[in-house]
Fold this protein.
Amino acid sequence: MIPTDLPTTRRRLLRSIGVGAAGAGLGTTAGAAEPVAGDNSAAQNSQSNAIDPIFGLASAGPNPCSGDADASCFESFPEPVRPDHEVELHIEIPGLLLALAEQGGFSDTTTATINMEAADGDVVARNLHRPDATVEIQTPDGAVTRTVAEIATLVTETIGFHYDPAGLHVSPGDVVLFSAETPDHAVAAYHERHGRQNRVPDSVGPITSPQIPVGGSWLYRFGAEGVYDFYCPPHQVFGMVMRVVVSDGDSVPSLSVENTGRPPAEETFLPEILAGFDPNVPSSHEALTAAPLDPEAIVEDGPVSWETVVEHHRNS
Ligand SMILES: [Cu+2]
């Protein structure tokens, strides 16, 4: 038996950070603007503007690279601002888990058992307490029933708020396209003028995008060689960070950190919005110090997916 009383503070919190059951996998994805054949307004927009060294170049869309488009979508952009790489901005929390969290989740004991078993990302059902016990979850499409073991698996499928890839190597002069696949994201450099530690090369200013609407895009051209750490302002507390390494060939620049403000968050608040379910996703600090995002690994291994960062965290 689970409480039916909806915790309104959690719902309000979910809405304020861009997550709602309807937008996170319960049959509907957030309404991405589909590029219309022959409509190249993003490209036309870009043509009349340059990429600003602080504010980049934003477009509300339609973004020709939105969704599952392949790399040929870059050709929809005119040459002066044509992207060389793409980074997608995502929220990956199974809708059913969110809906269960909105209902109040399980008892503390059941939740703790699930968290313990799910922590390494590999659920062995027989290790759970009462794995076959069921829960009824209310969704916009009606009630569904799931077992404790199935819920534990949903916890492992939760990789949260993230950039993909989370580690990217580019050459000086390359343009990166940031595509918002889900709502409420932005891209900001860890910079003293954002009240943060400086984690960009010395000559680089307080780079920031606007909040990018779903289906829209933001372009940024990287200049100075070095390591650039970025965060998503509303989701930094959930571990949404990424690293771009800018260098020629295989050279590996090192990260320069100055204590000019707040460091990357050491804790993640993901369990707070999931009724205590803890998918063991790294905090911003843990992600930016994880081996897969070491500048050398990013240069050697090419784009590093967020899933790789999460898997490494769950198994170390
Ligand atoms: Cu975000």
